[in-house]
UniProtKB/TrEMBL annotation:
<keyword id="KW-0464">Manganese</keyword>
<dbReference type="GO" id="GO:0019877">
    <property type="term" value="P:diaminopimelate biosynthetic process"/>
</dbReference>
<dbReference type="InterPro" id="IPR011650">
    <property type="entry name" value="Peptidase_M20_dimer"/>
</dbReference>
<feature type="binding site">
    <location>
        <position position="185"/>
    </location>
    <ligand>
        <name>Mn(2+)</name>
    </ligand>
</feature>
<keyword id="KW-0479">Metal-binding</keyword>
<feature type="binding site">
    <location>
        <position position="161"/>
    </location>
    <ligand>
        <name>Mn(2+)</name>
    </ligand>
</feature>
<feature type="domain" description="Peptidase M20 dimerisation">
    <location>
        <begin position="208"/>
        <end position="300"/>
    </location>
</feature>
<dbReference type="InterPro" id="IPR036264">
    <property type="entry name" value="Bact_exopeptidase_dim_dom"/>
</dbReference>
<dbReference type="GO" id="GO:0046872">
    <property type="term" value="F:metal ion binding"/>
</dbReference>
<dbReference type="GO" id="GO:0050118">
    <property type="term" value="F:N-acetyldiaminopimelate deacetylase activity"/>
</dbReference>
<feature type="binding site">
    <location>
        <position position="125"/>
    </location>
    <ligand>
        <name>Mn(2+)</name>
    </ligand>
</feature>
<feature type="binding site">
    <location>
        <position position="127"/>
    </location>
    <ligand>
        <name>Mn(2+)</name>
    </ligand>
</feature>
<keyword id="KW-0378">Hydrolase</keyword>
<dbReference type="Pfam" id="PF07687">
    <property type="entry name" value="M20_dimer"/>
</dbReference>
<dbReference type="Pfam" id="PF01546">
    <property type="entry name" value="Peptidase_M20"/>
</dbReference>
<dbReference type="InterPro" id="IPR017439">
    <property type="entry name" value="Amidohydrolase"/>
</dbReference>
<feature type="binding site">
    <location>
        <position position="384"/>
    </location>
    <ligand>
        <name>Mn(2+)</name>
    </ligand>
</feature>
Amino acid sequence: MSADSAVRFTASDETTQIIKRTAGEIEPQVIEMRRYFHMHPELSGQEFRTAIHIETILDKLGVEHRRVAGTGIIATIRGEAPDAYDAQGKPRRRVALRADIDALPVTERTGVAYESYNEGVMHACGHDCHISMMLGAIDMITRLKTHLRGEVRIIFQPAEEISDGAMMMIGAGAIEGVDAIYGAHIWSEVEAGTISCEPGQRMAHTDWFRIDIKGVSSHGSMPHKGIDAVVVGAELVTGLQVLVSRDTSPFEPVVVTVGEFHSGEARNIVSGSAYLTGTIRTWSDKMRSEVPERLKRIVVEVCSAFGATATFSYENGNPGLSNDPEQAAICRGSIERVLGEDALATYRGTLSGEDFSEYLNRIPGVFVFVGARNEELGCVHPQHSCFYNVDESVLIKGSMVAAQWAADQLA
């Protein structure tokens, strides 16, 4: 980043002080909001109650908004600095902040007082935190209007967990005219109180597969009369790992996970069919392109060895997530201004995926990891665990960084 860019993307000290002062005032509300959303999780594409509650809070804050893509929301905060808009009403610069809002089909086992009211559904990935951090940031930004030379667009995105939401919001015009975008994920592998915003690739390519096995059913007492799809499927669960352990260089990150295995109709019948579904995570473009054929080879050969046949289908999901170097540098400055240099974390990245990558493939931006790991509080479980919980003291920090980034962008 050039020296000119560094100067251009730095808000005034007064702006930072307003953010810090507001943080002290609204932190209890941010935590309260997080607990409300945690108690009322909704699955991807079904976030109706969540969207209504977000809209209610936006109305109280006096922020204009519109509903798109079913349960998505686009909100707008217009800067009021003298040159925020040109004679034609176009903002000098428009930046976006994004928060995802959906939950997971997980039965919660945390035992907290604000545990999920919706049996079998849980905010096990922290999207409840993302909503509340964003609403906190919006509160801060509304108090900065006279300092903003441009416009802040806020995207509340549904369906991130099924990898569809970002493209739905892009189709609804969420990033039209946007110059840069910011996203954040609360993260169990980063220590509470610190935030990671390194440049370059941060998350993996996310792809999906399904294997349909066709065997031959028979009586449970006569397995030799059939071809047991359960046995074939079980062999595939372990056989697919050959891709990782023996078919790929140890220096090439790859993850193969079977998430579903369904087979059988009764306890005394050799199952004649089964299906497995799962996800593949790769780091490099080259490996991503090679994996489908390698997996297909393993599936065909294993099934053939047992006399079964299989149909293998593969679906490309979201590409790997990579931070723009300049935007990462700007964000680093934003973190330092509101939280201090000690808040900067070093994190190598993750084989998890995020459809925020779809935004970054189209416009420059940055995606940060807000650390929430705190062993003293028992906040040590990974995302998607039924025991997942966070150190809530970090929520306001996430709000502050998002607001400071927006202010720096529009300085």
